[in-house]
Amino acid sequence: MRIPAELLPADGRFCCGPSKVRPAAVEALSDVAQSLLGTSHRQKAVKDQVARLRSGISAFFGLPEGYEVIIGNGGTTAFWEVAAFSLIRDRAQFATFGEFGAKFAKAVKDAPFLGTPTVHKGEPGSAAFLSAEQGVDSYGIPQNETSTGVAVPVQRVAGADDGALMLHDATSAAGGLAVDLTQSDVYYFAPQKCFASDGGLWIALLSPAAIARAEEIKSSGRYIPAFLDLVTAIENSRLEQTLNTPALATIFLAAEQTDWMNAQGGLDWAVRRTAESAEILYSWAEKSPTATPFVTDPGLRSNVVATIDFAEGIDAAKIAKVLRENGIVDTEPYRKLGKNQLRIALYPAIEPTDVQALTSCIDYVVEHL
Asked: How far, in Å, CA of 349 to CA of 277, rounded?
């Protein structure tokens, strides 16, 4: 099936990660390729890009006093292990409502040197929340669950023990959803979502309390592998470098996206942009005779990852296949969720006009299947 050219989006990339990389950013990378790619990560050319990224992120989020932007090798999966070794003293509590939040909880449960965590679990499409619990020194929750398209506010747990840390998984939220960083101690993410780059890095915005916790745990004598040592990552970040060789293109593309978003108006602009795209998509689904938002509570619907269910008899997998054949790619649902739905990224790099075009293309495919 060929979708009429006049219906197609200008850019058909709607993947929830790795996300669309703006062509201008790729061109900028090409322009510096000979002076950057293939350069030692201890040299000024690379350190300048690390400094550019850290400074840009600090400005983008309006970093509170004392907070620091820390960068390390590996993505969010690696950071879960970093947190287990370097941030959790003993007892943690988690709220999980999808695949990725559950993975962090499992990593901590499997750590033989930590106590058994408390886990509040919500069913896919709904949310779960944290609650004060005596003896818990660390609380973890996703701001946005990438697998289901559920988003919750970033906020501290009322009544938590003094000194308890708040860890927010912002992998797909950071850069597209509003946040008050004073409500978090560890706001961590990877750059292949809203920051329109490739994977291979974790980025954490750490409060003074989180930095102090990492230093305390390291000084306690706990064995921490060098790759997962948060204090080592902090020390290297302050030198505008990472412990191991980073993916230079990833750092550059993330810095390009950060500078571009700052030039548009920073986080406030990005939040408005994703909200505009989300309004287009959810309004279309609510009016459609064949589609409906998977997340039934409008207050929990994500503005950066949207999941859209289809009525019985409408094969979402077939829709995704036809879209792909027409250059509209990666609208398939999260593989383990097993729903008859499409999952669509609404990150800042994606034009709202392309989201509008996508809805027209879906309507065309449904009508002609």
From this structure: 11
Q: What is the pLDDT of residue 37?
A: 87
From the list 361, 17, 62, the residue with the least C-alpha distance to 187 is 62
Rounded to an integer, the average pLDDT of 197-226 is: 97
Q: What is the pTM of this model?
A: 0.96
The reply to whether omega before 18 is within 30° of 0 (cis) is yes
Give me the half-sphere count of Cα atoms (radius 13 Å) on the Cβ side of residue 60: 30
Q: How far apart are CA 352 and CA 334, in angstroms?
A: 22
pLDDT at 335: 78
pLDDT at 41 over 90: no
Give the per-residue SS3 of the chain: CCCCHHHCCCCCECCCCCCCCCHHHHHHHHHHHHHHCCCCCCCHHHHHHHHHHHHHHHHHHCCCCCCEEEEEECCHHHHHHHHHHHCCCCCEEEEECCHHHHHHHHHHHHCCCCCCCEEEECCECECCCCCCCCCCCEEEEECEECCCCEECCCCCCCCCCCCCEEEEECCCCCCCCCCCHHHCCEEEECCCCCCCCCCCEEEEEECHHHHHHHHHHHHCCCCCCHHHCHHHHHHHHCCCCCCCCCCHHHHHHHHHHHHHHHHHCHHHHHHHHHHHHHHHHHHHHHHCCCEEECCCCHHHECCCEEEEEECCCCCHHHHHHHHHHCCCECCCCCCCCCCCEEEEECCCCCCHHHHHHHHHHHHHHHHHC
What torsion, rounded to 10 degrees, do the Cα atoms 170, 150, 299, 189 define?
10
Calpha distance 162→132 (Å, rounded): 11
Residue with tokens 């959790």: 88
CB-CB contact of 141 with 115 (8 Å): no
pLDDT digits (tens, 9 = 90+) for 96-139: 999 889 999 999 999 999 999 999 999 999 999 999 999 999 99
pLDDT digits (tens, 9 = 90+) for 10-26: 999 999 989 999 999 99
Q: What's the start-to-end Cα distance of the chain, in Å?
A: 8
- Contact present, 362 and 343 (Cβ < 8 Å): no
Distance from C-alpha of 326 to C-alpha of 350, rounded to nearest angstrom: 18
